[in-house]
TrEMBL record:
It comes from the Bacteria. One of its GO terms (biological process) is microcin transport. It is found in: Cell inner membrane; Cell membrane. Its main location: membrane. Keywords: Cell inner membrane, Cell membrane, Membrane, Transmembrane, Transmembrane helix, Transport. It comes from Palleronia caenipelagi. It is a multi-pass membrane protein. GO terms for cellular component: plasma membrane. The chain crosses the membrane at residues 9-26, 126-147, 159-185, 215-238, 273-300, 320-346. Belongs to the binding-protein-dependent transport system permease family. This is Microcin C ABC transporter permease YejB. InterPro entries: MetI-like (IPR000515), MetI-like_sf (IPR035906). Residues 124-343 form the ABC transmembrane type-1 domain. PROSITE patterns: ABC_TM1.
Length: 357
């Protein structure tokens, strides 16, 4: 197992470099870089893409490669290029960036005058809240429901719960979020939950129990909205895993020995059936964590990593884009290794070294 982990750790390096090369190369061909953003703001254009599309009457200067730069002195443009590092060739900029990232120096945001890690740390509470609680709730509901559906396969309970699951899966998260707001956040009916934020004003002055209650009061609706579509996959995966195990010979033998149905299901079947479900928890959590819904964050006025990524992409804030890409890409690759370790923890019979041999 040690040799397998070592190989996986070494594989992280070329994988991460490949991810960065592809994304860095793509940005070289995307119009509307950070300098164009600054020029558009100075010229009062509001949006650099208007100039790129030719919709704002912008004229490209004859001695500048930047759209909308007419009237600005070349010295000013050169100073901007030096400040952002665009006076260097792309290869040199990429190598400098990777050298800094290896030392976990992600620099500062172009437009916020704050370090990238500090900016990410500021947004983490929202993303952790949505990712962690959505994953935990999905597992707590889906596993018992999937087991119940497997035991009662083909019954009316199995049929109507499958119909509910399919309907829930078909409802977009943002649409469900709007429905929750209309029903329970003062939209048209009840004013039960707050509209925005993770905490209320004056949260620091509340008691410990008051802080906990206020926190859960605020996250109820956004967590429900982000969890609604996760039930289907986990529930059906759990059900199918149990059905596959129930049909195996060792289950028939256990029942023939006179073991109770509960002991057969939870003493023998559960561990084998839950292997793929439980071992996949790290990857499921990190998927929900990274894929924080921009729309749900916007609807509930939550300032998380989803909005951060969107705003950085629109503003062409390259330090934020590449810094978070490197940081979370590294975490994602490490979590992939942790998922393999979870398989071994749940079922010690699995040996990745033997498989690879």
């Amino acid at each position: 197992m040690g040799a397998y982990i070592l190989r996986r750790l070494l594989l992280i390096i070329p994988t991460l470099i490949g991810i960065m090369i592809v994304n860095f190369t793509l940005t070289q061909f995307v119009p509307g870089g950070p300098i164009e953003q600054i020029i558009a703001r100075m010229e009062g254009g509001g949006d650099v893409f208007e100039g790129i599309a030719g919709g704002g009457g912008e004229i490209e200067s004859s001695d500048s490669e930047y759209a909308g730069a007419r009237g600005l002195p070349p010295e000013f443009i050169e100073e901007l290029e030096r400040e952002f590092g665009f006076d260097k060739p792309p290869l040199e900029r990429f190598l400098n960036m990777m050298w800094n990232y290896i030392r976990f120096d992600f620099g500062e945001s172009y437009f916020r005058s704050i370090g990238v890690l500090d900016l990410v740390w500021e947004k983490l509470p929202v993303s952790i809240t949505l990712g962690l609680w959505s994953t935990v709730i999905a597992y707590l509901v889906s596993i018992p429901l999937g087991i119940r559906k497997a035991v009662r396969d083909g019954s009316s309970f199995d049929t109507w719960t499958s119909a509910l699951i399919i309907v829930a899966y078909a409802i977009p998260g943002f649409l469900f979020a709007i429905l929750l707001l209309v029903l329970f956040a003062g939209g048209s009916y009840f004013q039960i939950f707050p509209l925005r934020g993770l905490t209320s004003d004056g949260w620091e002055n509340m008691s410990l129990l008051g802080k906990i209650a206020d926190y859960f009061w605020h996250i109820t609706l956004p967590v429900l909205a982000s969890t609604i579509s996760a039930f289907a996959t986990l529930t059906l995966l759990t059900k199918n895993s149990f059905l596959d195990e129930i049909k195996k010979q060792y289950v028939v033998t256990a029942r023939a020995k006179g073991l109770s149905e509960g002991k057969v299901l939870y003493g023998h079947v559960f561990r084998n059936a839950m292997l793929i479900v439980i071992a996949g928890f790290p990857s499921v959590f990190i998927g929900v964590f990274f894929g924080g819904s921009l729309i749900i964050e916007t609807i509930f006025s939550l300032d998380g990593l989803g909005r951060l990524g969107f705003e950085a992409a629109v503003a062409r804030d390259y330090p934020v884009i590449f810094g978070t890409l490197f940081f979370f890409g590294l975490i994602g690759l490490v979590v992939g290794i942790l998922s393999d370790l979870m398989y071994v923890l749940v079922d010690p019979r699995i040996d990745f070294d033997t498989r690879e041999g």
